[in-house]
Amino acid sequence: MRVATGYTVIFLFVAIFIVVFLHVMDEAKSIRPFPAVLAEEIDVTDVELMNISYMYDTNGDLISEIAGEEKRKYLPHDEIPIMFKHAFLATEDRHFYDHQGLDMSSVVRAFVTNVQSQSIEQGASTITQQLARNLFLDHSQSYNRKLKEVLYAYQMEQEYSKEDILELYLNTIYFGNGVYGIETASEFYFDKPSQELAVNEIAFLTGIPANPTFYNPLTNFENTKQRQEWVLEKMTEYESISEEKKDSAIAAEVVLQVKDRVDQYPSYVTYIEYELKELIAENEGFTKRLTNAEGEERIEIERELQGRTMEWLRSGLKIETNLQPSIQDQVNHALSSHLGAREAEGTAVVVDHQNHNIVAVSGGKNYKKYDFHRGFQAYRQPGSAIKPLLSFAPYIEEHGASINSLVNGGRFCAQGYCPRNFGGASYGHVSLNHAFTHSINTAALRLAERTGLETAFSYLEPFSFSKVTEDDYSYPSVLGGLNQGVTPLELTRAYTTFSNNGIYTPPRGIHKVTDYDGNILLEWSHKETKMWSTETNEKMRVLLQNVIKEGTGRNASYGSHLAGGKTGTTNSYHDLWFVGYNEAYTTGVWIGKDQPGSIQPLSSEGTHLAVWRSIMSQIQ
């Protein structure tokens, strides 16, 4: 009996052992090393720093710095001055190259101090811990945050080399006044790159991050100077400089050369930021996605595009533009001098049609950055300024007509639309030249009728007038009565075709976009579209030149026999246009009120022609 009982007990023990063993083994399979768990829970690889983007004119001169909440110019490790590294290592983390993110001797010392004061007086943070806090955590004073800081620091030491950590640190520390990183601090406080700083200046900047408010050089210079001397002492102890060099640096005068943020030519810069979004949309497929999108879908795509544009700008770009400052200045001067305090607004766009470059654009008189931009945001009725593109050129191209071919200028009625000519005049048969030069409405309508509205409007498609749709395929549109209109930029770009043998290549303001090292990231591809034959184009140039010689644009003449253009006036004198060219440039001028209203006195004075003449006579 005892034997049987013994065997039973043994059997049960063995069975229980096997069950427990199997359970333990199963649990063991789910046990992973601490580093593996940490790597999964704490991601330190996704680091995106906000950088300044720079915009340049065609001469390579800086015209705008585009910065978000953080002004930063990132500096690679091999471009960081060695003395800056020594300064921060000496003052922040002497054992940086020896620890794995946590300096235990500093922790013990800080712990004793904090216990004695019964508060958190010392943090004992290594450079890696400070970097972890700056990138991933907040700056609250709590033991919970400190624990997270240690874990993040440890993980960063596993993922990054010491050089990478020091590089990130020196580009992320805060120097007050919205300035981040040593390069931006050097340029902001001393107006020169960090490579050109003397030891006394490096030590001066090194003292700021400890307390950017207390050591703010602009408000507390003496505090910063005292901190600089402490930094130099630590650098001497660290043996990065000698006693003699320390004394010399302390004695050397610190002269601040605070650099104001560069932000010139607001009209042009605002437009370029808009064009950058267009370029990104084209490059990343947003343009195709937006083509057929409507309603909420379109809003969501546009929101996504705006986000991508901001991501590009925050990455740190060099945007090379086609701005010619002297021409932009002339545009601003012409609008200001001719409009002055008049109750009307105006804009002008100038294109170098030989190189397809937008060299100047106005947002309006006395324009302020990011205000409503009348150059590319104002959709207005073009009046007779649309006739060359929608009526005359299509008719000549389709029918091979000469400028002396006849057209009836008498009363016209179609689909219930019976417009009048200017002043109520009625004509018999007139030549195309006479009809164009004197802007006879009924003649232009008959040409479009012969061509066919659908065919005539097909000539507008390559110009990408963004608000022109099939709903505009009507006779009023032939005279510029479009449902929503066109912008001065759109119309001026279209007119460049007349100076390029009938070939349209969309002019651009952006030459190219690069990173800080000059590697090309984005640039426009030049797409050519043959709009009409060279023969048709030459006939159109004669018509356009005759407008200035003897027609509605006579007051735009300034002596050049190669200048040509077309006027446009909308009903009740709400809009005045003149778009034309000389040998090198095509310029469009629009004058009107933001809330449409009559500007008849300006029409009588020919103000739009005077503005155009003022610009073109100075830039030919």
UniProtKB/TrEMBL annotation:
It is found in: Cell membrane. Keywords: Carboxypeptidase, Cell membrane, Cell shape, Cell wall biogenesis/degradation, Glycosyltransferase, Hydrolase, Membrane, Multifunctional enzyme, Peptidoglycan synthesis, Protease, Transferase, Transmembrane, Transmembrane helix. It comes from the Bacteria. Residues 346-588 form the Penicillin-binding protein transpeptidase domain. The chain crosses the membrane at residues 6-25. InterPro entries: Beta-lactam/transpept-like (IPR012338), Glyco_trans_51 (IPR001264), Glycosyltr_51/Transpeptidase (IPR050396), Lysozyme-like_dom_sf (IPR023346), PBP_transglycosylase (IPR036950), PCN-bd_Tpept (IPR001460). It holds the Pfam family Transgly. SUPFAM superfamilies: beta-lactamase/transpeptidase-like, Lysozyme-like. It catalyses: Preferential cleavage: (Ac)2-L-Lys-D-Ala-|-D-Ala. Also transpeptidation of peptidyl-alanyl moieties that are N-acyl substituents of D-alanine; [GlcNAc-(1->4)-Mur2Ac(oyl-L-Ala-gamma-D-Glu-L-Lys-D-Ala-D-Ala)](n)-di-trans,octa-cis-undecaprenyl diphosphate + beta-D-GlcNAc-(1->4)-Mur2Ac(oyl-L-Ala-gamma-D-Glu-L-Lys-D-Ala-D-Ala)-di-trans,octa-cis-undecaprenyl diphosphate = [GlcNAc-(1->4)-Mur2Ac(oyl-L-Ala-gamma-D-Glu-L-Lys-D-Ala-D-Ala)](n+1)-di-trans,octa-cis-undecaprenyl diphosphate + di-trans,octa-cis-undecaprenyl diphosphate + H(+). Residues 60-235 form the Glycosyl transferase family domain. GO terms for molecular function: glycosyltransferase activity. The keyword DNA damage does not apply. The keyword Cell membrane applies. Its EC number is 2.4.-.-. PANTHER family: BINDING PROTEIN TRANSPEPTIDASE, PUTATIVE-RELATED, PENICILLIN-BINDING PROTEIN 1B. This is Transglycosylase domain-containing protein. The lineage of its organism: Bacteria, Bacillati, Bacillota, Bacilli, Bacillales.
